Amino acid sequence: MTPTVYLSHVARAQIAIAEADLYFHLPVTPGGLCVTCAEPEPCSGRYAALQVLLRYGVLPKRRPGVAGVRTTGSQTMAGFVTDQTRSNEAR
């Protein structure tokens, strides 16, 4: 049986802010730069948000689609390789 951990209102607020910051720093450009701060991935904003979450021992809530990853419709390995080549040429 795991013990129940109660977090104060301040701790829950810090976690909510860290999660929001993390979601802002998740999307990256095809060149590997953070869309928010233009630092190479993983950026300092992402590290700071993760440190807060680790301090309280919680994982961020999962929100599918936040990272901006979209499928291209390629269902074969050849299609995947072609899509990756196009992405790398765009850099």
**Which overall shape is indicated by the principal axes computed on the Cα atoms?**
elongated
Compressed to H and E, one letter per element, the order equals HHH
β-strand percent reads under 5%
Given helix and strand content, the structural type is: mainly alpha
Global mean pLDDT = 79
CA-based gyration radius: 17 Å
Could you list the spans in which at least 5 consecutive residues all have pLDDT below 50? none
CA-CA gap between termini:
51 Å
Q: How many strand segments?
A: 0
If helices are DSSP runs of H or I spanning 4 or more residues, what is the number of helices? 3
Q: What's the story with the biggest beta sheet? A: none
**Level of helix content?**
40-55%
Write a brief structural summary.
This protein is 46% helix and 0% strand. It has 91 residues and is mainly α.
Question: Would you mind describing this structure in some detail?
Answer:
- The chain has helices spanning 9-24, 44-56, 77-89.
- It is elongated and about 50 Å long.
- Helix 1 (9-24) packs antiparallel against helix 2 (44-56).
- The protein is an all-alpha fold and 91 residues long.
- The chain has a domain at 9-56.
Task: Present the secondary structure layout.
Layout: H1 9-24, H2 44-56, H3 77-89
Note the main attributes of this structure.
elongated; mainly alpha; about 0% strand; about 45% helix; about 90 residues
